Amino acid sequence: MSGLVAEAGIHALVLFAPLAFGGVEGWALGVIQIIAGIVAAAWAVGRLSGPRPGPRPPGGVWIPVLLFAALAGVTMVPLPSAWIAALSPGVHAFYETAVPGYAQGRPFQAAELVPWLLSDQAERLPPAQGDTSPLLDPPLASSGLPLSVPARRTLSIYPFATRQQLLLLLCYLAVFGAACDRFDRRERLLRLARVGVFAAALVSLIGILMKATGTRKFFWVREASSLNIFGPFVDRNTYAAFAGFWLAVALCMVLFVLGRRGRPVRPGSLAFWGGAAVLMIAGIFLSLSRGGILTAALVTILAAVFGLARGGPKGAPLGLGAMLAAALLLVVWIGPERVLERIGTLSAGSRVPSLQHRVEAWSRTGGLIQDHLLLGTGLGTFRFAFMRYAPPGEGWWTTAHNEPLELLCDTGLAGGALFLWGLVAFLRRAARPGRLGQGEDGYLWAGLALGVAGLVLHSCVTSNLQIPANALTLALGGAGLWNTSQMLSARPSRSARPRPVPEPGEAAAS
């Protein structure tokens, strides 16, 4: 029963998160955390009820992951200034500049905040008139702000943001662990793949229809504050990353359906996987996300190469070509002008303005990383820490548009080392599937591997994993990749299968 609850909760997350604006709003984030909590509870009950046969759990991966979470938790513990100076000189220097009384080791009194900020401008301030309270002595007692803050500070420059980000990370880890436990059989993994592909196709269809009708409102009802929306996603790049992941799965399953040797093609399966792929390809092109278009093109080429390398049917290239042609016709029907213009900008390479801005921001993160080399500024604090390093005269970036760089900024070399440890431990198993074979497991492994690789690659030029829908997709993709790899590696090869033992009479006759 607990397994069914966990599976239903994960399916609900896959469907709900992308349709709820990617899960970025507070109400949607709350629903995601509640469902993730139910999934975690069901997973815990299932684990306590006794071990179950299935793929080997990712034990070696949990050690660095839990150490990473513990590191984030330590950065929220108030410490004496001497400890902060030893562990993170950059944070110590920041507090000396920004927090009154910190350098003297005394509590911060809110009443002295304004005089402290304006100490070198006090003589230029006009005197108070009449009964108006003096500017340097505001009525802070009625403002709701704390009047006194202890002298001890945290290694995270904004522990509230770190706590929120750590809670989200724990939700993703719970979903990953529950998925590793539950989706340990081919039929369960295929159900998850169908739900994910359906969600991505539905989101793509909504975006295509919004383009066709020319609306700038979410679901044709709610005004959008962003100019780059696509479907229910507030940013076209994050949509393209989400759709690109499930596109890889759909393409590989199309190749499997077409390559069932000696068996007739199943029209229902081909229509589902192929139709979803057409919608996702058209949606990615119409979203005008350059990174998404490049990633989708790369995923399509690699999927075709994989299918041909596995000795796929001669009609596989024709089937992929038919899907691409259908997607192209859909784009032409909506209007290809903006798409062609957007694709044309790819020829500019590094001279693309948005890429130039990213490169400029990335170069300035070097100073942030160098000043907080060991422990960073705290998980989830990039938007606050980068304010001091942003290009002059421009608004600061709230995300680095590069997930590895932002990870280094937030957690320093310690967090980066733990991340690499976990990644290597995961890839040692998940990236070595053994004998792929010709069955569904091999094609499903290839689709998940291409999807995870494409999502991670795209996240090096934009902040995809800041969106809960995409982070959940990566967690589920990693769990599915782990399980399919374990199932494939456990499958005996033909040469390794035991030969039948001859009867005694047969052995004597030979």
- pLDDT < 50 runs, ≥5 residues: 130-138, 493-510
Assembly state (oligomeric): single chain
**Major sheet: arrangement of strands:** 1-2
The number of distinct helices, counting runs of at least 4 residues, comes to 19
Q: Strand share of the residues?
A: under 5%
Strands, count: 4
| Biggest pleated-sheet summary | 2 strands, antiparallel
Helix content: 55-70%
* Radius of gyration computed on alpha carbons: 27 Å
The coarse silhouette is globular
Structure class: mainly alpha
N-to-C terminal Cα separation, in Å? 56 Å
Order of helices and strands: HHHHHEHEHHEEHHHHHHHHHHH
Mean pLDDT level: 82
What does this 3D model show about the protein?
The protein is 63% helix and 2% strand. The protein contains 19 helices and four strands. The strands form two sheets. A two-stranded antiparallel ribbon has the order 1-2. Strands 3-4 form a two-stranded antiparallel ribbon. A hairpin with a 3-residue loop joins strand 3 and strand 4 (222-223). Helix 1 (2-19) packs across helix 7 (159-182). The radius of gyration is 27 Å and the shape is globular. The termini are far apart.
